[in-house]
């Protein structure tokens, strides 16, 4: 699936991923390939991206929203730091 992570200032990540784990407002959620459509608000916390090679990238986000539709996941974060 294609993943984009954006902040108001810049595009932080764009690429292919096998999964993304996010701090949803009701608890952590994991989005995998062919996930059902979803829109959710996000809390501050750890966002983990697993690439096709199995390598994890970790970001710390400061709230935002996520949308998953047709194997495209878009994360709009209010702020972010690469860990």
Offer a quick outline of the entry.
The chain is an all-beta fold and 83 residues long.
Model description:
With 83 residues, the protein is mainly β. It has no helices and 10 strands. The strands form 2 sheets. Strands 2-1-9-8-5 form a 5-stranded mixed beta sheet, with no helix packed on it. A 5-stranded antiparallel beta sheet has the order 4-3-6-7-10, with no helix packed on it. Strand 6 (45-50) and strand 7 (56-61) form a beta hairpin. It is globular, with a radius of gyration of 11 Å. It starts with a strand and ends with a strand. The model has no long low-confidence stretch (mean pLDDT 95).
Give the oligomeric state of the chains in this entry, treating copies of one chain as homo and distinct chains as hetero.
Answer: single chain
Q: Spatial order of the strands in the main sheet?
A: 2-1-9-8-5
Q: What is the helix fraction of residues, given as a range?
A: under 10%
Biggest sheet details: 5 strands, mixed
Low-confidence stretches at least 5 residues in length (pLDDT < 50)? none
Number of strands: 10
Mean pLDDT: 95
Nearest-angstrom radius of gyration? 11 Å
The H/E string reads EEEEEEEEEE
Based on helices, strands and strand pairing, what is the structural class? mainly beta
* Global geometry: globular
Q: How large is the share of residues in beta strands? A: over 45%
Distance between the termini: 22 Å
Number of distinct helices: 0
Chart the SSEs and their pairings:
Blueprint lengths: L1 E5 L4 E6 L2 E6 L2 E6 L5 E5 L2 E6 L5 E6 L2 E6 L2 E6 L2 E3 L1
């Amino acid at each position: 699936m294609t993943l984009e992570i954006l902040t108001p200032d810049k595009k932080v990540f764009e690429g292919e991923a096998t999964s993304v784990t996010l701090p949803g407002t009701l608890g952590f959620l994991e989005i995998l390939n062919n996930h059902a459509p979803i829109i959710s608000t996000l809390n501050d916390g750890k966002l983990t991206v697993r690439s096709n090679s199995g390598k994890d990238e970790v970001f710390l986000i400061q709230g935002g929203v996520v949308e998953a539709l047709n194997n495209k996941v878009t994360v709009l974060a209010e702020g972010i730091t690469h860990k």
